[in-house]
Every structure is written in structure tokens, then in C-alpha cells.
Amino acid sequence: MAKFAKLQKQAGAVMKQLQGTVIKSVRTVSNFEQALTRVAEYCQQMKLPSLQAMSINDVLTYLDLRGQIVGQKTLDMERQAIQKMLQHVTGTLPVDKTLPVIKSEHQQVLLSRAYTVPQIELVAGQQKDSNSLATRISHAAGLRAHELLTLAKPTERPADKRPANSTKFSGREGIIYTVQGKGGLKREVLIPVSLSRELEKCRRPAPVTVQDRGINYLSRYQLAGGQPWSNSFSAASNRALNWSRGAHGLRHSYAQERMHELQSLGLTRLLALETVSQEMGHFRPEITETYLR
């Protein structure tokens, strides 16, 4: 109880400086204080100095992680509360700047569903080369839209050291790359040899910085990704199928296909779920479970 009171005190100290001037609504003050108490708890768990010591990168990492387990409404509330703190209390963020809107993966999971392989082929056939290749790679490796922009060889950017089952990528062959996913986690992904050859033809002479949804990424390949690719996918899906479940549906496809493959190899459902969770960059197997509907 004492620990929680200390966290509430950190949040309360921030809101005391905002109440009555920046924020006049009593309800908003209460909601923001609750939100910042959750953020303070995260800081404690991650051994960050304090709530007010958070950097922009700390905040974006927090929002990415929260987006895996809460809906868009809660995520937006927490982003707005942190933004006010950074703008008017710590001065970390200029008043005329805002934090990028992070899309809730939890919300995407609830709204999107898997595509079949023939449907994906039809959609990719409606896209121009760079977008089409991105669609096929996203499906083959289970990548998020922004992760397509971060592809690198392990020698260029090693994966973070995290526990991994020996069953990871079992039953598939290809070339290992790394991507930077939610919360800045750098993980290994497997791309089929044929797609790897196409990807290497798109290698830039030197890495460049590209921006997606207000966040900068170091791009080594002239490959579509991020919001523009997502928009291309939805438009192509509507042309090819007369409906769209969004590009995030490709991750559903990956999860369901891999679960079937791994269980066909004799893995228990629990072990298959843990393996797919590691391949997809989820922080908990329960998140992967929602992709199997």
C-alpha cells in the first residue's frame, strides 16, 4: 500500500501544477491523475528514476507496450496525460508539439481477422512492386507495418537477448533478419529465400531515416511500409476482394498458419503458442491467443 501511495503522490505532484491553469475540468484532472499513476508504476517496474524523469523515448516505449493490452480510448487518455506533463511540467516537449498517436494493437486484434493465402495473393497482385513485396514479406514473417521499415541483417543490428524456444521457426526455411518492434524490442524474423533475394535487390546504398506516424526509423531497404503501405493494402484489398480487414490481418494469418504448422510437427498447443508469440514479438502468449479467433 505504501508503494502505491508513493506512485499516487508522483502523479498528484504533476496534476497539482496543471490543475486550474492548464486543465480546469475536475473530471479530467482525476482521469489524468489515475493515468499518470499507472505510468509511474511502469517507471518503477522498469527502474526509471521517476515519472517526471521520463524521456520521449521512454514515453513512446511505454505507449507501445500499453497498446498491446489496452484499447484505444485508454491509450489515448494516457498519451494525453503524459503529453500535458511533458509540455507544461517537465518541459521535455515543446508546447506546440504533440506525441504521435499510437494505435492500439488490442483494438486492431478485436477488429481484424486473417486472410487466406489465395486472398493475400490476389491483394498483392493489385499492388505496385514495392507495396506488393512488402505485403508478401509481412505475411511470410508476421511483420507489423512499421517493422517493414526497420529490416536489417543481424550483423547490422543484432536482436535483443531474450528467452527463446528451440522450436522457433521450426518447419520453415529462410534467411534471418531483425526488425525493431513494439517497445523498441529488436527480434529475429525469418524471410523465405525467394523473398530475401527480392528484398536484397531493394537495398539502399546507405541507410536513410524515414518517418512514419511521427516516429523516425532507420531504413536500409527501399521497401514500402508504415501507414502508406497500410493504406495501399486496404485499397488493393477492396479492389481485389471488395472488402478489407486491414493490413494487420496479415499478422492474424501468420499466427494461425504457424500454430497449425507447429502443432502438425507434434508440438503441444501451449508450446506452439509460446513459439509463435516469440516469433511475432509479443510480450505475452495471451496476446497471441487473440489472433487465433
Q: How far apart, in Å, are the first and last alpha carbons?
A: 39 Å
Tell me the Rg in angstroms: 21 Å
Kindly state the mean pLDDT as a whole number?
91
Q: H/E order of the elements?
A: HHHHHHHEEHEEHHHH
The biggest sheet amounts to: 2 strands, antiparallel
CATH level 4 superfamily of the largest domain? Intergrase catalytic core
**Which overall shape is indicated by the principal axes computed on the Cα atoms?**
globular
CATH architectural label of the largest domain: Orthogonal Bundle
Helicity, as a percent range? 40-55%
CATH class wording of the largest domain: Mainly Alpha
Number of strands: 4
The structure class reads mainly alpha
CATH fold node name of the largest domain: hpI Integrase, Chain A
User: Strand portion, in percent?
Assistant: 5-15%
**Which runs of at least 5 residues are low in confidence (pLDDT < 50)?**
none
The strand line-up of the biggest sheet is: 1-2
Number of folding domains? 2
Count of DSSP helices?
Answer: 12
